[in-house]
Amino acid sequence: MSISISEADSVAVLTLDRPPANALDVGILRSLVNAVDEFAGAPPAALVIAGRDPFFSAGVDLKAVTHYGPEERREMVASVNAMALGIYGLPCPVVGAITGHAVAGGLVLAVCTDIRIASTGGRYGLTEIKVGVSYPIAAIGVIRAELAPHAARVLALGNQLVDAAEARRLGLFDEVAEPDDVLPRALQIARELATYSPEMYARTKRDLRAGTLNALRTAVADDPLAAGLGWLEDSAYRERARSALGLASDAQ
């Protein structure tokens, strides 16, 4: 199982469960998007999205991507866009239990949640430029909407991993906790949010995010990555990535 879904005191818990690092491949993205679609149709009182210590998610599985054909690569981009828009647009409270390292697409997933509790044991950052990966439109759109300009600049352009305290200072996270305390604290917050009026929570969240969501939903239809352009179709990129990962060339 790439994800698991459980319930604790009326709170739904979606746990990323793809060892060792919860890297995002086509399979886990399909599962995430399908689960989020179900939550959108029948919202729980609150939702917690968690990883498993020491990872939340290491982002896109570059080893898998280098083996994908054109259709799978396009599906990856479409699924990242659907994941970001789906989670960011859920009407119910969504709490991120950031149980460890959250990097690149894994950090994008974390930023899609409403309230974020992060592990002191993790490292956090946006490393897409460093590895030569373009952002799908919804991913960079959520980052732009949720982070202050200086934080987005430091993380997206600096490409450095930071610790939990620095990530909180930059506004990425609302609280930091020891690794064993992350999920219990996220559940505590989710249970409290679940007591609020679901109609008022959904309305307020919609009013805060409608402009961003509407613009991104329009933009993803013309995402050049989803159309098969950019790094996913770039054979030179794939060769660089395979070399960096110690894998055989596509030509072999």
Give the H and E element order: EEHEEHHEEHEEHHHEHEHHH
Tell me the radius of gyration.
Answer: 17 Å
Query: Structural class, from secondary structure content?
Result: alpha/beta
- State the total count of DSSP E strands: 10
CATH T-level topology: 2-enoyl-CoA Hydratase, Chain A, domain 1
Lateral arrangement of strands in the main beta sheet:
1-2-3-5-7-10
* Separation of the first and last Cα atoms: 32 Å
How does this structure look, described?
The protein has a single domain (3-179), classed as 2-enoyl-CoA Hydratase, Chain A, domain 1 (Alpha-Beta Complex), CATH 3.90.226. The chain contains 11 helices and 10 strands. It has helices spanning 26-41, 62-65, 70-88, 105-111, 128-131, 137-146, 149-158, 164-169, 182-193, 198-220, 235-244, and strands spanning 3-8, 11-16, 46-50, 55-57, 94-98, 101-103, 115-119, 123-125, 162-163, 175-177. Helix 3 packs parallel to helix 6 (137-146). It is globular and about 45 Å long.
Based on the model shown, name its key terms.
single chain, alpha/beta, 2-enoyl-CoA Hydratase, Chain A, domain 1, six-stranded mixed beta sheet, four-stranded mixed beta sheet, disordered C terminus
